[in-house]
Amino acid sequence: MRRGIPTPSEHFRALGIGTPAKEPEQPGFWQQRTVADILLKQEYLGHTVNFKTRKKSFKCKKKVWNDPSEWQVFENTHDAIIDQETFDIVQRIRDGRRRLTPMGEMPTLSGMLFCADCGAKLYQVRARGWTHEQEHFVCATYRKIKGGCTSHQIHNVQVEEILLRELRRITAYAREHEGDFVQLVTRQSEKELSRQLRDSNRELEQAEARIGKLDVIMQRLYEDNVEGKISDERYARMSASYEAEQMQLESRKTELEAFIAAAKEDRLNVDSFLGMVRKYTDITELTGEIIRSFVEKIEVMKPEKVPGTRTKKQTIVIYWNFIGAVEIPDAEEKTA
C-alpha cells in the first residue's frame, strides 16, 4: 500500500474492465489471499494452464476448482517473468510455513529433519512450559513402531547451531573461492550421481531378469494345470502370487527408468546457489526464509559412543538446495 501499486481489481477498473471484487476502502491495499494466489501462478513461468476449474453441472453455472493433478499445463507458450529456481524456492518457503498450534508457532526446523537410518521424518517434541533448549526431535518410526528404529534424539538448539555455522562457512567459501567452489561441487555431484546411476541400473537389470523368469514360470504353471499335474485351486493360488510379484516389479521398473532418465538430464545448478549467496551476504541468524532458501533437508544419524569415553557423538548431514551435500575444506586445508 505504501508503494501505491494497484491491486488486480483496481488495475482492471482502470482499463474499464468490470470485476466482481468490491472496491477497497483503501486504494493499493493487497489482501494476503491475493498475494498467495499470485505466488502460485505457473503462468508467470511462461506456461499456459488449462482446466483449473469446472462447472458443477449444465444447470449450475458456479465454478469449482479441479485438483491440480487434473490441470493441463502447456509449457513455454509465452515469455516468462520469473525463473524456475526462484519459483521453486518460493514454493518451498510457502510449504514450510510455520503453522499455529495451541503452543504457538512450530519451530523453524519443523519438517526439515529426517532419520538417516529409516528415512522417516523426525517428530518435533515440545510441551507447555518448556524452554527452547528443551525442545527436541525424535524419529517418527521410533515413536510409532516399537523396535522399528532408534530415537535419533537431537535438540533443536544443537541443529540450529550446526546449521548456522555450516551455512556461514559454505557461503563464505563460495563467496571467497568461487572457482574452487564450482569445481568442488561439480566433482562431488558427478561422483554421487554416478553411484546412484550405477545402483539404479543394477537394480533395473535384476528386476527385468526376474520379470522374464516369472513369465517362464507362469507359462510352465499353466501347462502343468492343463496337463492335470496341479489342481485348479493350486494353480489359481500360485498364479495370483506370481502375478502380484510381477506387478510390483513392473511398477518398480517404471520408477527406476524414470529416475535414470531424469538423472541423466539433470544438471547441477551451482549458479542458483551462488545467486542466493550473493543475496544473503551476512547471515547472522536463522529464519524460515533463509532455511528454506538454502536447505533441502537435514539427515540425522544416531548417536555413537566415542571410544574410551562416556560421551556420544552425533552427526547430521545437510543437503543444500541445487547442490546436495557438499564437504567444504577447512581453512587450514585451503591454505596448505
Identify the strand order in the major beta sheet: 7-11-14
Low-confidence stretches: 332-336
Strand content: 5-15%
Task: Determine the fraction of residues in helical runs and give it as a percent range.
Answer: 40-55%
What is the molecular shape? Answer: extended
H/I helix tally:
10
Distance between the termini: 55 Å
Biggest sheet: strands, sense, closure?
Answer: 3 strands, mixed
Structural class: alpha+beta
Nearest-integer average pLDDT? 83
* Element pattern in H and E: HHEEEEHEEEEEHEHHHHHEEEEH
Oligomer: single chain
- What is the number of beta strands? 14
What is the CA-atom radius of gyration, in angstroms? Answer: 27 Å
Structure description:
By secondary structure, the chain is α+β, with helices and mostly antiparallel strands. Among the domains are: 1-36, no CATH class; 182-265. It has helices spanning 8-14, 32-39, 84-95, 140-144, 156-176, 178-226, 232-265, 270-279, 288-294, 331-335; strands at residues 48-50, 53-55, 63-65, 72-74, 100-101, 104-105, 113-115, 122-125, 136-139, 154-155, 295-300, 304-305, 312-313, 316-320. It has a 3-stranded mixed β-sheet with strand order 7-11-14. The protein has a 3-stranded antiparallel β-sheet with strand order 8-9-10. A two-stranded antiparallel ribbon has the order 1-4. It starts with 7 loop residues before the first helix and ends with a helix. The model is unreliable at 332-336 (pLDDT under 50).
